[in-house]
Every structure is written in structure tokens, then in C-alpha cells.
Amino acid sequence: MIRALLLASTLIAAAGSGAIGQTAAPASQSQVELRPSDVLKSPVLRPHVEVTGELVRIGDVIENAGAAAGIAIYRSPDLGTTGALPTATVLAALRAHQVIGVDTRDITEVTVTRLARTLAAKEIEQQVVQTLQQRHGLGEPEDLTVNFDRDVEAKTLPANYTGKLQVVSEKFDVRSGRFDISYEISGGEGTAPARLRVTGTAIETVVATVLTRPVQRNEVIKVSDIVIERRPKSEVASDAASRDAAIGMQARQTLRSGQVLRSADLAKPDLVTRDQGVTLIYRAAGIYLTARGKALDTGAEGDVVNVLNLQSKRTITGTVIGRGQVAITVISPRVVADAKTE
């Protein structure tokens, strides 16, 4: 937004006493021969002015200002903003310093922009994350949840403050995640550095598999029972279960909603339970038989359990191979050849 600059509050008192171009004593044409460089060029008004300092000088608003170029006539606008001055107001300020005959080129107003460097809020936040990573070995940016005590706002600096954000003091509590970091930005020789302080908390997070509802003991985990969330690393055990590893597994004990799943919380689902009717599968070379049985133990896939053959009433052992299925291995007799030789 362009805002008007009030001459009454910004005009700096005239300090010059003499006119810029005073008439010299006439000389005969035979004695002095004027060269093109000796001819005083007319001052020309500029339509737009960019300044870096706090003052607007004559040399900023007109070309060919000559010796008056360094005279200050106005206060600059605020950092990063633009102000407007009517041409008549500018000419009046110039006349106060005996600068006359300005070619306005039909310009109706002069705009003045004060150049600045703006540190965006996002840039400051990224610098904080980078500082914590480099100094404390925290995870990647996506693994950090950073909360600032106050909303980070963009910082506007004079244009000569071109230096990088340099850490001058830094504190970080690993347990609580509290940080307090101060930065400096150099403005070059002869200028005091600008300071910036940020405080807040930074928590390193990891991807975790979290229950969406309470799960009872021996209940099987379904796809709808879990979600993937980022949780503080301190809350997630080293044996955290992945989503794919958790689906289809059975809870070893009652689990609460919102709990991060661990491998120790899960077990293979029971495919055979005690006193359950099961199918006994006999396999041997060229033989495949089935019989009815009753499980005497509970077991998951691959577990060896005792079962009762309901036909022979004998207790045998087998391996759980599916829901309600137990494989019985039949040892085929081997024919031992007579090794005697006549």
C-alpha cells in the first residue's frame, strides 16, 4: 500500500546557504572555449526512488543533483514500505536548498520505497529445526514436532543486513524438549547485529501403529482396528509392531484404545483351541487320509499339539496347519535289506 509522506513532519531544515550554480564573471570567447563536460546538466526528477537508509536525499529524487546530492530532505518510509510525494511538494523541498530548474517530465508524484530484507516465518522455523538437528542429532524434519511459545512472525530488517542467521546461544533439554535459541544477523561493518530469540519445545517422533478401539485378550487384530500416527519417540518401544505385522495377529492381553502396538503384545492367532473338534490329516508316501479328532491343547499355526483320535480313542501328536486342522505324520516302515553275503 502506498501512503503519503507528510512534508511538515519529515522535511529536514535547509542547511545550505548559497545557490548551486552561481553566475561567473563573463569571459571573452577568445579566452574560454566551453567543452561539453563543462556544461551544467539540468536536474531531472525521478518518478520512483529506492533507498536503503533512514533518509531520502536530493540525489535520490533527482538526476544531476551535483553538489546538493547528499543533502537529506525527507525521512524514509518504514522498512519494506512505499510512500508517495506530490511533485509540487518535492519541488518545494528542493527550492529550500536552492535546487531550481528541475525537469519534472510531467510527473505528478514521486514514490519512495525503502528496501528491506524480510525473514519469512517459515525460514525462521526451518532454521530452528536445522539447528536442533545439527547440534543434538535429532531426526529428519518430518520426524520433529516443533511448538513455539509464540507464533513465529516474519522479521523485517534493513537491506544491508544480508548475513546468515548465526547461533550465539542455545539451550536444549533432551527430556522435556525445551529449547531457547538466540541468533544474530550481521549488518556489515559499523552496524550492530540484529538479534532474534525463539523458544519452545521440539519432540522427535516416529511412525507408530495405534489401536482405534479396545481389544480383548485373544481377539484378532483387523485392518479397521489400527491407524498410523506419529508419536513421541520416547513413547514407542524398540519392538514397535508395523501395520502389516499387526493385522491378523492375536492380542496376548487386553489392549486399550490409543495404545501403540508392540510385537510383544501380539501372537499368532489360535487356529485350534482345547476341546475343539478338529480334522486329523494323515500324510504318507502316496497316502492321504482324514479322521475326526478332538484337540487336547490350544495352538497357533506351526504349534505341536496333542489330539484324540475319536475312532481309535488314542492320543497322538500333530502340527497345526490351519483352522481346525492338525497334520499327523505317519512314519513309513523301511525295508532293511539283508546285508549278509554268502
TrEMBL record:
CDD domains: SAF_CpaB_FlgA_like
Gene3D superfamilies listed in its UniProt record: 2.30.30.760, Antifreeze-like/N-acetylneuraminic acid synthase C-terminal domain
Main location: periplasm
Keyword Endoplasmic reticulum in annotation: no
Coiled coil: none
Signal peptide start-end: 1-19
BP-aspect Gene Ontology terms: bacterial-type flagellum assembly
Classification via SMART domains: SAF (SM00858)
Superkingdom assignment: Bacteria
SAF domain mapped to chain residues: 206-267
GO CC, one annotated term: periplasmic space
InterPro entries: Flagellar_FlgA, FlgA_N, SAF, SAF_FlgA
Keywords: Cell projection, Cilium, Flagellum, Periplasm, Signal
Protein location: Periplasm
NCBIfam families assigned to the protein according to its UniProt record, in alphabetical order: flgA_cterm (TIGR03170)
Name this protein carries in UniProt: Flagellar basal body P-ring formation chaperone FlgA
